[in-house]
Design goal:
This protein has 547 residues and is of the alpha+beta class. The chain has helices spanning 2-31, 35-53, 69-82, 87-100, 106-119, 123-144, 150-234, 241-266, 285-294, 312-332, 369-379, 428-431, 435-457, 466-471, 478-483, and strands at residues 299-304, 338-344, 348-355, 383-388, 394-401, 463-464, 508-514, 524-532, 535-544. The strands form two sheets. It has a five-stranded mixed beta sheet, covered by helices on one side. Strands 6-7-8-9 form a four-stranded mixed beta sheet. Helix 7 (150-234) runs antiparallel to helix 8 (241-266) and helix 10 packs antiparallel against helix 11. The chain is elongated, with a radius of gyration of 45 Å.
C-alpha cells in the first residue's frame, strides 16, 4: 500500500500544481494580446450577433425579435470567449444551446467547432470531443425536433452535424497542424543559418591561423638570415669592441624573436598536417598544376605579364586560390577541363581558375573552402569573385595588390555568404501534417453530396394521382380502394401524419404523397385514407411541413 501511495504521489503533486500552471500560462498569453487580436475578437462577436441574433440574417424562422435577444447575445458572447481557455467545453455547450432550443446560432457553432479543432492539440482529445459533440447533438435534436424521423430525417441530422460541426472542426485542426509545421520549418531554417554562421566564423579563424603560420615561415626565414649575417659580422676583425657588442645584441635579438615567434605561432600547428608546413607561393603553382595532371585532371596553366616581387601574404593567397580552384573542380566537376591563369597586370596580380560544365551532375553539398579563401584574400587587401559561368562552368578569380596592403578592420558579413543546403525531406509525420484532417473534411463533403444525389435519384412510384383520389368515395369497400393504391418506393420523408387532423376513432389510416405538388402551397400535399369495418370512412388532404 505504501509503494502505491509513493508512486501516486508525483501525480498528486502534479495535480495540485496544474491550476497554478494553467493560470500562469494563460496570464502569459494574456500579456501577449495585441490590438489586432482584440479587434479580431470584437469583429467575430459582431458577426455572431448580426448573423445569429439581430437582425439574424441566417437565423431563419427561429429568429428572436423581442427582449430575449439580449440574453441570447450575451450568452453567445460568453460561449465564444470561453473557447480561449476551454475550447471543448465551449463547443459542446454551443451545440447543446443552439440545437436544443429554437433561436438560431449556426454561425457561433461553426466558429466554436473551428476553434476546438484549432486549439485541441492531442488527436485523442480531439476524437473524444467530436464523439461527445455528436452525442450532445443527437440529444439536443431529439428534444427540439422529435418528429424528424425516417431515413431522410436521420440523413438530415447527420448532414447538419457534418457540415456545421465536423467540417469546421477538421478545417481548424488542419490549419493548426499546418501552422505548427510552418513554425517548425522556420525554426529549423533559423537554426541551420545560425549553425552555418558559426561554422563560417570558425573557418575564417582557421584561415587566419594558416596565414599566421605562413607569416611565421616567412618571418622566421628573414630572422634567420639576420642572425646568420650578424654572427658572421661579429667575426670581422676590423670591428671595434663596441661594434662587436652591438652586432652581438642584434644577433641575440634576432634569435630571441625567432624563439618567441615559434612559441606564439607554434600552438597553431597542432591540428595541421606536415604538408601545410611547406612554403606555398605563387611560384609553386606550377608544381600544383603538375600534381593535378598526374591525378588525372585535365588542367592547363596560363601565365602572363612580367613577374615581380610579391609580399608574402599576397603570394600565399595566390597559391591558395589555385589550390582551392583545382580542389573544387575535381570535387564538383569531375572530368571537366580546368584552366588556371596567373597574370601580372600593371597594377595588380590576377589569379583565375575556371572549369567547364561537368559531364555528370555532381552531388549536392557546399563546403567551407571558399569562406577561408575569401578571408585570406581580404586580409591580403584583394578582391575575390566566385560564381557560375553562362556556359554552366564555374569561376574563381581574385585581384591581389603588389604592395603590402592592410586589411579593412570591418568583419565580413555572414549574411548570404554561404548558400544554405537544401532542406532535407521532412519526416513522415511532418510531411503529412494536416493532410489527414483535410482528407477527412473532403470525405465529409463527399458523403453528404453523394447521399443527397442518391436520394434524389431514387424512383418514386408510391404516390397518389388525382384520379385515384377522385375515384375513391366514402363508403367504398376497403378492398376495392386498396387495390388502386400505388406500389413501389415512397418519398423519403419524416412522419406523414405531421400537420394532419386527428384520425377518426377506431379507424386505420393510410398516408400517401400526391404527385401534384406546387411551390406556392407552402408544404407537401399528403392524402389520408381511413378505413373502419371494411369500408372507407374518410379521405382528406393536408400539408406536411417537415423535411
Amino acid at each position: 500500500m505504501t509503494s502505491v501511495v509513493q508512486r501516486l504521489r508525483p501525480e498528486a503533486v502534479a495535480l495540485k500544481a496544474a491550476p497554478r500552471e494553467f493560470l500562469r500560462t494563460h496570464a502569459e498569453r494574456l500579456g501577449q494580446v495585441t490590438a489586432w487580436r482584440v479587434g479580431r475578437e470584437l469583429l467575430a462577436l459582431a458577426l455572431i450577433v448580426v448573423l445569429d441574433v439581430y437582425p439574424g440574417f441566417i437565423a431563419g424562422p427561429e429568429q428572436v425579435h423581442d427582449w430575449r435577444a439580449v440574453p441570447i447575445a450575451f450568452g453567445y458572447a460568453g460561449l465564444y470567449l470561453l473557447r480561449l481557455g476551454f475550447p471543448a467545453i465551449a463547443m459542446l455547450g454551443g451545440v447543446w444551446v443552439v440545437f436544443g432550443y429554437e433561436h438560431g446560432g449556426i454561425a457561433i457553432v461553426i466558429m466554436l467547432a473551428y476553434a476546438a479543432g484549432y486549439r485541441i492539440v492531442s488527436w485523442q482529445r480531439a476524437l473524444v470531443t467530436a464523439a461527445l459533440g455528436l452525442a450532445v447533438y443527437m440529444l439536443a435534436w431529439d428534444m427540439s425536433a422529435p418528429t424528424l424521423s425516417g431515413p431522410l430525417g436521420s440523413w438530415v441530422i447527420l448532414t447538419v452535424y457534418g457540415m456545421v460541426v465536423v467540417l469546421p472542426f477538421l478545417v481548424g485542426r488542419y490549419t493548426a497542424q499546418r501552422n505548427a509545421l510552418v513554425a517548425a520549418l522556420q525554426e529549423r531554417e533559423e537554426r541551420v543559418v545560425r549553425e552555418r554562421r558559426m561554422v563560417s566564423r570558425q573557418v575564417r579563424l582557421r584561415e587566419r591561423n594558416r596565414i599566421a603560420q605562413d607569416m611565421h615561415d616567412s618571418l622566421g626565414h628573414r630572422l634567420s638570415l639576420i642572425s646568420v649575417h650578424a654572427g658572421a659580422l661579429s667575426l670581422d676583425s676590423g670591428l671595434g669592441e663596441k661594434q662587436r657588442e652591438a652586432v652581438q645584441v642584434l644577433r641575440s635579438a634576432a634569435l630571441t624573436a625567432m624563439e618567441e615567434l615559434r612559441g606564439v605561432i607554434g600552438v597553431l600547428r597542432r591540428d595541421e598536417p606536415d604538408e601545410e608546413q611547406v612554403r606555398r607561393t605563387v611560384d609553386a603553382i606550377d608544381e600544383l598544376v603538375d600534381g593535378a595532371r598526374r591525378a588525372g585532371v585535365r588542367v592547363s596553366l596560363v601565365r602572363g605579364g612580367q613577374p615581380c616581387p610579391l609580399p608574402a601574404k599576397v603570394s600565399h593567397a595566390a597559391y591558395r586560390i589555385a589550390q582551392e580552384g583545382l580542389t573544387n573542380a575535381s570535387k564538383h566537376a569531375p572530368g571537366a577541363s580546368v584552366q588556371v591563369t596567373v597574370k601580372y597586370e600593371p597594377d595588380a596580380l590576377v589569379v583565375e581558375v575556371r572549369n567547364n560544365p561537368p559531364r555528370v551532375k555532381p552531388r549536392d553539398g557546399a563546403g567551407f573552402g571558399l569562406i577561408g579563401l575569401g578571408e585570406r584574400v581580404r586580409l591580403a587587401g584583394g578582391m575575390l569573385h566566385v560564381g557560375e559561368l553562362p556556359s554552366g562552368g564555374f569561376r574563381i578569380a581574385a585581384v591581389l595588390p603588389y604592395e603590402d596592403t592592410a586589411a579593412s578592420d570591418d568583419e565580413p558579413s555572414d549574411e548570404f555568404e554561404v548558400p544554405v543546403e537544401q532542406a532535407k525531406p521532412a519526416t513522415g509525420i511532418r510531411k503529412w501534417a494536416g493532410v489527414g484532417s483535410i482528407v477527412l473534411a473532403g470525405v465529409v463533403v463527399l458523403v453528404v453530396v453523394a447521399g443527397y444525389v442518391w436520394l434524389g435519384s431514387q424512383p418514386l412510384t408510391k404516390v397518389v394521382t388525382p384520379e385515384v383520389y377522385e375515384r375513391a368515395s366514402v363508403g367504398d369497400a376497403e378492398a376495392d380502394v386498396r387495390a388502386r393504391f400505388p406500389g413501389g418506393s415512397s418519398p423519403v420523408l419524416s412522419d406523414l401524419r405531421e400537420g394532419s387532423e386527428p384520425e377518426p376513432a377506431g379507424a386505420s389510416c393510410e398516408y400517401f404523397v400526391t404527385d401534384e405538388q406546387t411551390y406556392t402551397s407552402g408544404g407537401i400535399k399528403v392524402v389520408r385514407f381511413c378505413f373502419a369495418d371494411g369500408k372507407l370512412v374518410e379521405k382528406k388532404i393536408h400539408l406536411h411541413h417537415g423535411a
